Amino acid sequence: MVGADLVRPVNGSRTLTSRPAGIPLPRPNMTPQLPHAPHDGPGSAALKNILRGIFDSQILNYGDYNLIFAVNERREGRDADGVRVSKPRYYVIGYRWQPAEIMVAPVNGQTLTGGGVPVELNMTNLAHAVQLADGDYEVGTNTGRTFRFGVQPEIAFTPAPETEFRLEQADDYADFGLFMQAFIAMA
Fold it and tell me: Domain of 96?
């Protein structure tokens, strides 16, 4: 069955999604497509639906948030031989203007499922929010949780070899930039 059970990445192959049997994939985009905005490229709508599903399954009042996909490209780890390697972290960032708040929902980049416990940052637990010299953002709670991430208007995302999604989020990118300016000023 095409559509409700399968998504089509850019390379044309079909990938089963991880969801309970009998529940169709959510259909809304991460934020509504504006009439003047370019249409999403191949795989973009499918990836947005997957990311929206990851966020919605973990967050109460999920409909109150605009979403954007973010990546920490600068995270390093070690491989089996102990050699330093780049291990990006992926997030679906939910944000809302009133009350000013960010929800950071980690994403497992290989399985496209939830990758950890979401963290809420608002004016009661925000320790810092800054934009770094390279354009990335860093936000932290007063309990010591810190998240660094970058946001781009268009992303090529490869969760597995020979599977690539392109995510177009230009309108979300512009809105999120304005939101973060205000959020940083409040911090």
Answer: 6-186
